[in-house]
Write a structure and sequence with these properties.
This protein has 404 residues and is an alpha/beta fold. It has two domains: 269 residues, TIM Barrel, CATH 3.20.20.70; 94 residues, Golgi alpha-mannosidase II (Immunoglobulin-like). It is 27% helix and 23% strand. It has eleven helices and 20 strands. Helix 9 runs parallel beside helix 11. The chain binds alpha-D-galactopyranose. The site of alpha-D-galactopyranose (GLA) has 9 residues, from loops.
Length: 404
Amino acid sequence: MKKTWFLSVLLLLMASAPLFAQKPPDLAQTPPMGWNTWNTFQVNIDEPLLKGMVDAYVSSGMRDAGYTYFVLDDGWMTMERDNNGSLVADPKKFPNGMKEFADYVHSKGMKFGIYNCAGTKTCAGYPGTRGYEYQDARLYASWGVDYLKYDWCNTDSLNAREAYITMSSALKATGRPIVFSLCEWGNHHPWLWAKGVGQLYRTTGDIYAGFVDNKNLGTWSALSVLNILDKQVNIRQYAGPGHWNDPDMLEVGNGMTFNEDKAHFSLWCMLAAPLMAGNDLRKMSEQTKDILTNKDVIAIDQDALGAEGFRYYSFDGLEIWVKPLSNGDLAVCFLNRSSHYQNITYDWMAHAIQDKISNTNVDFTQTTYKLRDLWAKKDAGTTRKVFKEVIPAHDVVLLKLSKE
Ligand code: GLA
């Protein structure tokens, strides 16, 4: 009797093993970090260029600063599927095939990402995934893909939520942990439904390397850093570990001034945004490198609490953004949006910070914090003293506050 009981338990455990094996791992517990081809190269990508970029990713210190993913955006495939309906890596661009390239990325200690689109064609006119979701997902898994960016062009009347759920299920069915990056530009409010579907979801249209004004491109407008920033204000409660609002990739090193790049990077870190660099890593200036690899600033983005920052104060072009951090610490970013310098004189003791979403309650008359200026890389006193600083135009002062 005892033996039969033991046997049935054993059989039951064996039968349920695949169920346990299928539990998806907890992906993207902090915002994904990486590099993507689009912002600099658009569809003009090929293996020699990209192998050089992989090498530069390592030699520039990006990988060691925490960037993990190497993502090919639009333009990696041929214009048609093959006779079996499979996508084909363009043999002129990738003569050794995509698996070989993915292996190269992996051999350097990074993860590999790729792009497609929920519609019939990608935004640049290559074959889209509509109707081929499971087939494409299996192909990606066979290549060793770790991350899929999934766009929203040529989707006609497709239901966004359903289309993204279908692809999400197809990726999960491969059994390979693949981060799923939803890119439907915030049109269907993915922050309301994409948790559990993917790990990051674009909240706006495309960024460009401009700080203040959007750029009119005829049929659409590319968005500035400040415009995208303003669009994040009411959606922070929907982001957290494993599900991030994505205000689009970084334009650091792509043409804005040093101050603007520094502000852009700081603000994306305050937003707990995915940090996908998009500059030419082979030709980074020292200033660009200093921005992208500042570990203390990256740590604000990657903080384990996963709280998105909020605009605490705004007056006459000067803003204060606050991001609650783990251990009761805080990041505070003074942003000067205006085109002239501004003086800050800030009395911590006169302003308590409260945030219902992260359950933060800070009264500086009760608790003193030490200040660390993360760009100047120096201590900046404590919250017992009035904080005074001059901020140049389109720049920030970024402080980390730790309990004394
Ligand atoms: C859309 C996306 C961009 C990029 C291009 C590629 O515009 O939003 O990030 O992927 O498509 O064609």
